Structures are given as C-alpha cells and as structure tokens.
Sequence to fold (550 residues):
Amino acid sequence: MIAEYDRHLAATPAGEGRYDVEVPAGWAVGGGINGGFLLSLMVNALRDALPAMPDPLATSAHFLSASVPGPAQVVVGVRREGGSVATADVELVQGGVTRIAATVTCGDLDRFAARGSASDRSLAEPLALPPIEECFASADAPDEVKAFVAMLGRFDLRLDPAHAGWGGGTPGGTGVVQSWWRLDDGREPDVVSLLTAVDVLPPVTFDLGLPGWAPTIELTAYVRARPAPGWLRIRHATKQLAGGLFEEDCEVWDSADRLVAQSRQLALVPRPMPS
Amino acid sequence: MIAEYDRHLAATPAGEGRYDVEVPAGWAVGGGINGGFLLSLMVNALRDALPAMPDPLATSAHFLSASVPGPAQVVVGVRREGGSVATADVELVQGGVTRIAATVTCGDLDRFAARGSASDRSLAEPLALPPIEECFASADAPDEVKAFVAMLGRFDLRLDPAHAGWGGGTPGGTGVVQSWWRLDDGREPDVVSLLTAVDVLPPVTFDLGLPGWAPTIELTAYVRARPAPGWLRIRHATKQLAGGLFEEDCEVWDSADRLVAQSRQLALVPRPMPS
Fold:
C-alpha cells in the first residue's frame, strides 16, 4: 500500500525540469495550504531531477502568493552541480503565477557522515516531552477545528499540555509550542517529510493569545540527518514579535535522540478578530 | 567624509537591474571574502532598485563559488512588487560566474512598526556582555592574524573573554562566540551593515578547538528593526556538528537593547590542519 502522504507527493515529469503535481485540499489550513507540506512536494520533485543528491541540506523559500488546491507545476533549475553539493532554484507555480520561490542546496548525507564523524558533537539536549499518552491528541480536537484545519486528518499530533493552554482559552504566554508527531498509515519519517514537520505545529502565536493564520514570508530549513523510524518530537519557539512580524524557530528530534532538522521562519502575526 | 565602509559598498547602476561593484580586498579572510559583507554589498544595490522597500526583512543566500577581490556585478531581478513587501532575486557575479544566489524579501520597517505595535513583545533577554574595556580587542590581535584576516582593519571587535580561550590556545568548548562590534570611521549601524554583523565574528568552531575557515553553504538573515547608533552586541552559537556540517545561529542587539537581526547559517566544519 502506498501511504496517503506519498500519494499526495506524487510528481509526474513533464520535461525540461518541470513536474506536474496536485496541491491536495487535504493539506489545507482554513483557506490556505500548509507551507511545509508544499516544500516537501517541491523537494520530492527535485530529488527526481538530482538523484545523486537526495538530501535537502538547506532549503530557503520565499512565499509569494497563496497556493490553492488543484493542479500545479514544480519547476527545477539546476544552478550548480559537481563536488559534494548541488544547488537548484525550485518554484511552485499555479496558472502561471509563482506561489513559492525556493533555492535548495542538496547533497548526500551518507557521504558527509563518512567524512565528518571525527568532529561530530552535540551541544543541545534532546527535546524532552511528556509521555505521548499524557499529551493532547489532534484526534480529540473539536469537530469545527478539524473541519477548518483539514490537514489534521493527515497525521497524529500530540501536543505538550504545558504549552497548549490556549486550547482551553488560557494561553500560557511562553512563546513555545511542542509536540510528538507522526504521519498516518505508518508512513515513517524521511528527509522529505522533515520539511513538512518543521511547519506542522500551530504557530507559537497561539500560546501568546494571538490565534489565527500566521502567513509565512520566508522559511529556511536545514536537514541535519536522515531520521530514524518512529515518532518525531518538534519544538517551535519565538523570541520577538515586532512590527506585526515574528520569527519562529523549529527543532525536530528523531526517536534516536538526534537533531534531524532545524528551521526558522519569518511570519505575520495574526490580525485580531474583528469584535 | 564618506566612511570607508560606504565607499566599499558603492554600486554603479549599469542598466536592466545590473550594478557594477568592486569586491574589496579589505574584506578578505585568508583567501576568501567575508560572506556577510558581500550580502551587504548586494542588498545595498537592491535598495537602489527598490527604493520604496528599503529594509531587507528576509535575505536567504546560497554560496555557489568563492568570491575574489576585484570587479563584480550585482544582478537584481524583481519577482513581486506591491502590497507591504517585495521580493527579488539578487546575485553576485564575477566573470560570468555566480558567486552568491540570494533571494530578498524587503519592506519598510516604519510601516510595519506603525501597524504592529499592539502585538509587540520580546521573549528574550538582551545579550549581556562584559564591559567593552574588559573584552579582547581585535586591535590587539597578533600581526600575523591581522595580515591573514584583512577585514580586522575595517572595524573594532571586542570579544567576550569567557568564549575566547581559543585565542590563548585553550578553547572553552562552549560552542559560543560573542562580542561588541562597530565599524570604523564612526560609521553607525543600519539595516545594510546588520548583514555584515551577522557573519563578522570568528566561527563558533574556534571555541570547539577547530580553528580555520568555515565555508558557508547557506545563510538566512532577518532584519527585525533599524538599529540605534552605537555599539552592536553579537552572539554566535551552535547546537550540532554532524557529518562535517554545523549550523551557526546569530543574534544582533543594538544599543537600545532591541534584537535587531537574527541569522542562521549552515557551514562546513574546518578541516584539521595537516600535521
């Protein structure tokens, strides 16, 4: 059986670096589409274009216009090949309009691991979360939330209650949201799904009493290792809201306690609801 | 008097989004040129092309080949204009070869500040450094270091001794480097020089006993506010070295205790010296 996630990622080569894809309504959040999933969709097509460089080491993306469910094209333009990395421009286009303009530097993490192990070290503690069964399950979200956030039907999210007071109307003000996460159908994490993982939690602004859609302006993600099977642990945190903009840092840890992905995004603070 | 830094940033419009610039030998680090300065050079030209959007909110850059001192062109391609932000591809080219491929989303921070103040808040403590006179001054670096790192003649750097043990051969292993910093000639910081600031300290690998040049693969910087006059405080930190790659996070604080810039870069761990 092909997992739903992989069906959603499907890309059909259309020649000259172009791939036909379908933006699935199943990854909608309100009127928009989850940006992390769209990056996975783009990078999955890029891997077809650059098979010797399967790992998206650094993906930087500027969000130019709002994607909608339906047909789209991923357009890959390789900028440099050879040596230990390759760099490509990768765009998501709908009806002639660029939705996302990304640049991706990719490589082969196995080759990097083989040469780099002497200097390997971690200066961070693995993300500590309460046991999964003590966390708030996305499956238990109210029906109206599930209807608005269609992507909640694509995965299992288990939020740390210490940063989820907003769910009961009492945001903690910590500027942190953290969670266990795994895809449906037992689909194990890989370097492609890590790009979904870095943008899949509710924005940290929820815990600051500012609910609502927080449109991403720019997101850069680094994939640091191929993730081990099992649950991922994800942490979002912010340091500053200024001028209606905030940054959101993300760490993703795998079941082997490795820091497998890092990202930062600049986003717009949700506007207050009209009262 | 025009400050040396501004003379080094000079860009001459050459039509169709092209600007003639000169990569100054004065910003060399060994055989390379400081990447942050090159981003300032690129963004300074971009500001001429998009005068209504003077602030580089998000700059993401992939470093494709090594820049050398001498003539270069900055090539600006505007991707989207209108609304509160604009996005442009900005490249640094020498002899027909792209050195740096960047995408910049810019806007006007005054307009953002005017609409966003209700939600403004900081969740981070301003960077605390020892008094300037207790820090290690770049002016006191050994002559052979100054000869190798030409850019040390462009500014005044005052390293926190708590993370500068490597200077005396005893790296602290903290994965942190932090410093006061200001440009020569009393040239005050602005949004352009912040892009220099995020890459101007020695790499955090120095404090991990891994001295040497750490080539940047990708760097993304967010400018969060226009800096107040005076010294900047800069902190670099890393969480992980894996497969010969490390990430370096940067915060820049201004004299008014505001977090004015953030960046993260993915770089290659310096290779051990042959023994």
